[in-house]
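Hi Q.,

Before the meeting this afternoon, I wanted you to have the adenosine-5-diphosphoribose prediction in hand. No need to reply - just skim if you have a minute. The sequence and ligand are here:
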Amino acid sequence: MNILHQQHEDRAIGERSSVKDDAIQQVRARIQQATCVTVLTGAGISADSGVPTFRGPEGLWKNFRPEQLASSKAFERDPQLVWGWYNWRRELLATKTPNPAHFALAEMEGHVRNFLLITQNVDGLHITAGSKRVAEIHGNIWKVRCTVCQQVTINREVPLPLLPSCSCGGLLRPHIVWFGETLPAQVLEQSFNALQECDLLLIIGTSGLVYPAASFAPVAKDHGAYVVEVNLDPTPHSDLVDLSIQGRAKDIVPQMLSGVF
Ligand code: APR
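Predicted structure with the ligand bound:
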């Protein structure tokens, strides 16, 4: 690389970082003005805590087939195989802690009257970080549901027996929304209300490929919200949102909130 090219590269990096600084400054101003904030997070926000994403280079779906492990058909066919996989994920997640992005959002919640954090993540790290107003639209890996009496309980036992049973004798399953299953009506209604009412939507760490979450940005935009995306890579929403900032959530999210409150 010759000197000129290096100088050009340095300038580009300089320009890129000043563009990013300007963008972060704009988001701070929007947060200060906002009266109703909604946040949507995906696996990318937990990647900095060491939680594998789904579609990244080391993503879960690179090594495992969702139709074999994350569907009710798979569970009917072989509940031990499915529970074996979820026990593996629970053991992994039991060692993970929230990162600065999770904590920044929990702090933000305390300063915004109308606020909802919608997460696709089942790792429970937002709640561990102190977030209260959370809609876990895909469920939570630390909850189990009885396939007979439908009772939902919190169970952090690691590992669980391969065929865990409920006090009613029914087989327990992970309280997670699997492929082909619909999201609970109550959590979906809560999410759509927040998307239609918010004047600011922050989307953090999601590839924007899985519905209904992938429809949330257009819904908020259609209802007049200013939409910001923070993601390591471009997504199908990057051209639709008002501001797309590429980078790691653990770096960008705290910067967006620093000095705002
Ligand atoms: N900071 C910000 N973004 C990141 C980071 C990081 N440190 N690391 C990865 N990302 C981005 C990736 O670029 C990718 O676009 O996070 C996104 C993660 O995308 P997916 O792995 O597809 O995860 P997600 O969008 O949450 O998946 C949605 O799909 O498999 C189902 O139910 C599962 O909830 C999940 C849903």
